[in-house]
Design brief:
Length: 276
């Protein structure tokens, strides 16, 4: 909590300074976002735990999106709906993190592996890869709110699709979280593979939902502006999940659970097979 209060205490003056210096709101937000990330990184160094950053992914977007909406022109119905879906996502993700948080003695296994693999270069990887890169991705994912705030385009079919995709995607993530938590509570689940519920549709329903959520934000931005740049954050998210996050999990699961290889053969990785 102290780390995030300190980050806020640094971010607010940065925004005020950037605006007084004549920077556009987007750049003012970006400067404050990076400054807050540096503060969180510093706290991670003090506690020797990069997982201090983990909650940043879900805590910052609602604040950032509201700022981008407001400074771009204001909050209309489209912006309000998109922001409420964003809040639904943020509450789900933050709650899931909080329920699984074991204190500062616990660090994400991916960071531990990276520390072992990179050796003396770990701090560069820590700051650039674990902290700054995700901050940039989330910032890019929130940029459609700037398009929403600046638009007076009427709501239409794309907004309806965006709403359904967003709510459905976050609900899928919530369902996947609960099923995984219940599976881990059972002693019979050790060494076995969760292949029931939404996990029978695909091996990574949580990442499927995450991609769907960011797609919904991009669709709202596209409905508002008709511009393709609003999909930049969504594309970066897909590259992160498909190119880095999922392969790391797949490798770990296959090494720890022999049955996971059969699960890989029989179940789609990301796009659900609802008919299974």
């Amino acid at each position: 909590m102290a780390a995030y209060l300190a980050a806020l205490a640094v971010a607010v003056p940065c925004v005020l300074w950037a605006q007084s210096a004549g920077y556009p709101p987007m750049w003012a937000a970006a400067i404050a976002d990076v400054a807050a990330t540096v503060v969180i990184y510093a706290f991670g160094l003090v506690f020797r735990n990069a997982s201090v950053y983990d909650a940043y992914w879900s805590v910052i977007p609602p604040v950032l999106a509201a700022f981008l909406l407001w400074t771009a022109g204001g909050i209309d119905l489209r912006g309000a709906i998109a922001w409420l879906i964003l809040m639904y996502w943020a509450i789900r993700l933050t709650a899931n993190w909080a329920r699984g948080w074991e204190g500062l003695t616990h660090e994400d296994w991916r960071y531990i592996d990276l520390r072992a693999q990179t050796g003396i270069f770990y701090q560069a990887v820590n700051f650039l890869g674990i902290h700054l890169f995700p901050t940039i991705l989330v910032f890019a994912g929130c940029l459609p709110f700037m398009a929403m705030g600046a638009s007076d385009a009427p709501m239409g079919f794309i907004d309806a699709v965006a709403t359904l995709v967003g709510v459905g995607a976050v609900s899928l993530e919530w369902k996947a979280d609960e099923e995984l938590r219940a599976f881990r509570r059972t002693t019979s689940g050790r060494g076995k593979v969760l292949d029931s519920g939404v996990w029978r549709w695909c091996r990574h329903p949580n990442y499927c939902g995450e991609i769907g959520f960011w797609l919904s934000m991009a669709l709202f931005g596209f409905a508002a502006s008709g511009e393709l740049w609003v999909f930049a954050g969504f594309v970066l998210m897909v590259l992160l999940f498909v190119g880095i996050s999922i392969p790391m999990i797949e490798k770990r699961q296959a090494a720890a659970k022999p049955a996971y290889v059969d699960y890989q053969r029989s179940t789609a990785m990301l796009l659900p097979h609802f008919w299974k």
